[in-house]
Specification:
Elements lengths: L2 H15 L4 H12 L9 H13 L4 E5 L5 H9 L5 E6 L2 H13 L6 E5 L2 H7 L6 E6 L6 H11 E9 L16 H14 L4 E10 L2 E10 L1
Parallel strand pairs: 1-2, 1-4, 2-3, 4-5
Antiparallel strand pairs: 5-7, 6-7
Helix pairs in contact: 2-5, 3-4
The protein binds S-adenosylmethionine.
The site of S-adenosylmethionine (SAM) has 18 residues, from helix 4 and strand 2.
């Protein structure tokens, strides 16, 4: 099967399960028109994140890597009115577009956006109540740092998701020496000996190609 097959398949399923969402469409358009790269999670993946957050009754969510706020909005819609999504973004343009998109989606009151290097923002976080869910989706070379901070900030039983963990199978190919591949490989080695979490990788194929995510539970 090829990317065309995966794309057709994902769109077929979406046509049954994902009602048309004018707000999300305008969010995607605003990000595109503002020159942001087309690297948000897919519509189906966004809905999965929303359903996951609701499945565990998440009230507090931490996201590392905001881009134009597409995944952030899915999370904000999942948390109750008194819930919150904290999201971290390095690029000022991405942060600006994301803020505009949060207003567009009417969820700005539920979102706290920190602009700056995620590693710097993370050390400033000392939440009174720990997060229920952490979504790691920024520079992959920092995945071990982000995961370590996620463990500090998440409650026992909380879920940590790390995106792009398969990357066309390249993470599993030792010949690929790019920093993002090494970052995720280092995280896998780290998890092998980590007694504080249990994790698995789920491969996916769809409009975003052949990829996958790590799903971990904090003990
Ligand atoms: N989660 C978003 C979604 O699905 O809609 C997509 C996030 S995109 C894949 C990764 C984002 O991480 C980019 O906006 C990039 O600017 C940001 N980023 C990269 N390095 C970062 C860093 N060191 N600190 C914070 N954000 C960073």
């Amino acid at each position: 099967a090829t990317i065309q097959d995966w794309t057709r398949s994902e769109k077929f399923h979406n046509s049954f399960l994902l009602p048309k969402d004018d707000v999300l469409d305008s969010v995607t358009k605003h990000s595109k028109d503002s020159g942001l790269p087309d690297i948000a999670v897919s519509e189906a993946q966004g809905k999965f994140l929303n359903l996951l957050a609701r499945s565990i009754g998440a009230k507090r969510i931490l996201e590392i890597g905001t881009l134009g706020g597409f995944s952030t909005i899915h999370f904000a819609r999942a948390v109750p009115a008194d819930g919150n999504v904290t999201t971290l973004e390095f690029d000022p343009l991405h942060a600006k577009v994301a803020s505009e998109n949060f207003k567009r989606a009417g969820v700005e009151n539920k979102i706290t956006l920190h602009v700056g290097r995620a590693a710097d923002s993370l050390v400033t976080l000392h939440p009174e109540k720990k997060f229920d869910l952490v979504f790691i989706d920024a520079d992959k070379s920092s995945n071990v740092t982000y995961f370590t901070e996620a463990k500090r900030l998440i409650r026992s039983g909380g879920v940590i998701i790390v995106d792009n963990a398969v990357y066309e199978g390249k993470v599993a190919d030792p010949e690929v020496k790019d920093s993002w591949a090494i970052g995720t490989r280092d995280l896998l080695s780290f998890l092998k000996d980590d007694k504080e979490v249990e994790a698995t990788t789920i491969g996916t194929a769809g409009v975003r190609g052949f990829d996958g995510f790590i799903y971990a539970i904090r003990k």
